[in-house]
UniProtKB/TrEMBL annotation:
It comes from the Bacteria. This is HNH endonuclease.
Length: 352
């Protein structure tokens, strides 16, 4: 979420209200969380006004393995919030080569009710008018914003304004599932510098949300037992299928999601798959499934076992590759036939 100051201006600083308190994300570069100082001072001011006590802890990725008590940043609560900010920055950089980095913080408060705490910290939110954004505004979301949102959610972050998904999942090529609205809501915040809400957009077929998520490499699939499904023949597959003969099961997948045709064709190119297996053997000394760890050679022996390891394109979204794109072995992953088959079914049809 983004804070709004007392003048009604949204601050470019990402915070989360979750147990055990408030997380303020780090500042980096010229644009990421550039209002970090204003946000931290505003949080401290509003907590002071509400009479809520708090402690500030370093919460950077490198420090999270350290016990919380050892990450406490000592500050004088009797000083001004501006002075407290300077003390926090000095303490978070103590003993490091950096003297001015503004790192991720955890503010643990005496108020344990997260809903009440969120209202105190972001007290202007109740007065905001939320309406649907024009399509042109939604389309300002770029692939980099969507990838940033996925990484944020993957690392344990949350989009608290959005509920868990009910009908669809947005899957990565590795089968990781995220709520489409959470991903797109965060991407909107990154792209437009606003705080996004469910009323700002629709997550359904024919809408910019699903279109842009798929363009960025995610697969929109129905959740288990969900009534919603991808419309039949929603799009044409613009690939040469003259030499592509799908299996009976692959035909079902294609009916569920025609975009998987491009994926299957690319994976059947023998040269790159052979090179990937060769490099994998050189690095690890054996072939095994990178998902389940199964070593078919030790179980079946020789060439029969090696044939059980297949190559999956996981890094680059094949159905949306630009003309002339050349895959590399870094785009590939070694999977056993079972894991590969399950993953393809998920990408095409969801978890039903």
């Amino acid at each position: 979420m983004f804070l709004m100051n007392d003048a009604g201006t949204l601050l470019n600083a990402t915070i989360e209200v979750k147990a055990p308190g408030i997380v303020l994300h780090s500042r980096s570069g010229k644009s990421r969380n550039r209002d970090y100082r204003q946000a931290l001072e505003l949080i401290m001011t509003r907590l002071d006004t509400a009479g809520i006590g708090y402690n500030v802890y370093l919460d950077s990725a490198r420090s999270q393995h350290i016990p919380l008590a050892q990450r406490l940043l000592e500050i004088d609560m009797k000083t001004s919030v501006a002075r407290r900010f300077d003390l926090i920055v000095r303490a978070m950089n103590d003993g490091t080569p950096s003297h001015g980095a503004w790192k991720r913080l955890l503010i643990v408060t005496s108020e344990t009710d997260q809903i009440r705490l969120a209202k105190i910290v972001d007290r202007k939110s109740a007065t905001r008018t939320v309406s649907r954004l024009p399509s042109a505004e939604m389309r300002k979301v770029q692939q980099k914003h969507i990838h940033q949102a996925v990484e944020f959610l993957r690392s344990g972050g949350d989009a608290q304004n959005f509920a868990p998904s009910r009908d669809y999942d947005a899957l990565t090529e590795n089968g990781e599932a995220f709520a489409p609205k959470k991903v797109f809501g965060l991407a909107l915040e990154y792209a437009l510098g606003i705080e996004a809400y469910p009323a700002n957009f629709s997550a359904s077929w024919g809408q910019p949300c699903f279109e842009l998520l798929e363009d960025a490499g995610l697969w929109i699939v129905p959740k288990r037992n969900a009534a919603a499904a991808r419309p039949k023949a929603r799009e044409m597959v613009d690939v040469d299928v003259s030499r592509f003969v799908p299996t009976e099961e692959e035909t079902v997948w294609i009916e569920g999601n025609p975009r998987i045709v491009s994926h299957l064709i690319k994976e059947r190119q023998p040269g790159l798959a052979h090179q990937k297996r060769k490099e994998f053997l050189s690095e690890h000394g054996r072939l095994f499934c990178e998902d389940c760890g199964f070593d078919p050679v030790s179980f079946y022996g020789g060439a029969a076992g090696a044939a059980c390891i297949e190559v999956h394109h996981h890094r680059t979204h094949l159905a949306k590759m630009q003309p002339g794109h050349l895959s590399s072995t870094d785009d590939l992953k070694c999977l056993c036939a079972n894991c590969h088959r399950v993953l393809h079914r998920k990408l095409a049809m969801g978890t039903t």
